[in-house]
Amino acid sequence: MVEQVGVAKAQTDTVTLIALAVLAGAFISLGALFFIVVVTDPRLGFGVTRLLGGLSFSLGLVLVVVGGAELFTGNNLLAMAWASGLISTRDVIRNWLLAYIGNVIGCLATVLLVAWANSASLGGGTVGETAMQIARAKAGLPFGEAFARGILCNALVCLGVWLAMGGRSVADKILAVLFPITAFVAIGFEHSIANWFFLPFGWVIDTQGTLSLAGIAGNLIVVSAGNIVGGTLLVAGVYWVAYLRSGRKREGQSL
């Protein structure tokens, strides 16, 4: 199924792909904003607050999977169809590039709308303070840590997409997405598309100039690279080796 979906995604026309990618960027941004609001009051304790924040952020991928959208990180699973020779390297790069560009447009457009709505003023301005803290922490991550967190993040994201493909109903798909996405957010892994909301939003509301553009750019580049490694090698690559390397589907081999 992942192979077939990969082929279909690779053949999607440019306008449709970009439109759906813009939606995905907006969906992930809404999940990120929901996360910021929920973790702003930490009185329940670190673990419980992060758990609730992760559940809130899951809104983004639920909208992507159930509503239908093109998310760069989830599309790293195209590597399975590529490894089987069903699509070309050019097809993969085209899909990833257009999806990434569309995701960024969706994120930045949402940043502008959220700033216009003055969402940072919620909770007497504490939501804005939380957004700034998150952005500063991300921009200040050492590149090695950011890369490793990007790998681990997209392993869980792609596993969430993988599990959702086994769902037969909307409820099945939502439940499949919740645990992997909640886990990566609660643990503090790094998602490149979400960071296209977190970091620009923090920069927009940063009236004191504490966020460096170099730190923002560095995080986005390194985390994007880590996401590719996590999705293509740790999920698509491992499952391709396990089930498809012989050129035929192996049915009935499940844990």
What is the helix fraction of residues, given as a range? over 70%
State the shape. Answer: globular
Instruction: Calculate the terminal CA-CA distance, rounded to whole Å.
Output: 18 Å
Supply the number of helical segments.
10
Poorly predicted regions are 249-255
Taking all Cα atoms into account, the compactness measure Rg is 18 Å
What is the CATH-assigned architecture?
Answer: Up-down Bundle
Strand content: under 5%
Please give the number of β-strands: 0
Q: How many structural units, i.e. domains?
A: 1
What name does the CATH topology carry? Glycerol uptake facilitator protein
User: Helix and strand succession?
Assistant: HHHHHHHHHH
Task: Supply the CATH class.
Answer: Mainly Alpha
Descriptive account of the structure:
This protein has helices at residues 2-10, 14-39, 46-68, 78-83, 89-116, 126-139, 143-164, 170-187, 192-205, 213-244. With 255 residues, the protein is mainly alpha-helical. 75% of the residues lie in helices and 0% in strands. It has a single domain, classed as Up-down Bundle (Glycerol uptake facilitator protein), CATH 1.20.1080.10. Helix 2 packs across helix 9 and helix 5 (89-116) runs parallel beside helix 9. The protein has 10 helices and no strands.
